[in-house]
Amino acid sequence: VNSTINLSQIRQDIKTNNFEYKTSDKELNVFFSLDNKSVGISLDKDILKDLKSFFNKNDFLEENGKTILKGDAANYVAGWFSEIA
């Protein structure tokens, strides 16, 4: 899965709530890139906590209550997201 992070694009998409893919129209709290497209998803706090306990803390950028995934965490989530999508 190509989940190379384009941080500036993700930040812009968060501001405008403009994502190529998103799980719902409710509050999105986790963001990553998939094939150079921004993805916004809503993850339960416990799931996010589990991800943070498993992956390196450098794989998570916290900004204004939002979490941007990068590195191995982004690859993991992008992998299952692409299978579901």
Q: What structural class should be given to the helix and strand makeup?
A: alpha/beta
Low-confidence stretches: none
Q: What fraction of residues sit in β-strands?
A: 15-25%
Mean pLDDT: 85
Distance between the termini: 13 Å
SSE sequence, one letter per element: HEEEHEEH
DSSP helix fraction? 40-55%
Overall 3D geometry?
globular
Largest sheet: 5 strands, mixed
Number of helical segments?
3
Estimated radius of gyration? 11 Å
Strand count = 5
Structure commentary:
The structure is a single chain. The chain is α/β, with parallel strands linked by helices. Helices cover 40% and strands 24% of the residues. It has helices at residues 7-16, 45-54, 71-84; strands at 21-22, 30-34, 37-41, 60-63, 66-69. Strands 1-3-2-5-4 form a five-stranded mixed beta sheet. A hairpin with a 2-residue loop joins strand 4 and strand 5. The relative contact order is 0.23.
Topology:
Layout (H helix, E strand, L loop, with lengths): L6 H10 L4 E2 L7 E5 L2 E5 L3 H10 L5 E4 L2 E4 L1 H14 L1
Parallel strand pairs: 1-3, 2-5
Antiparallel strand pairs: 2-3, 4-5
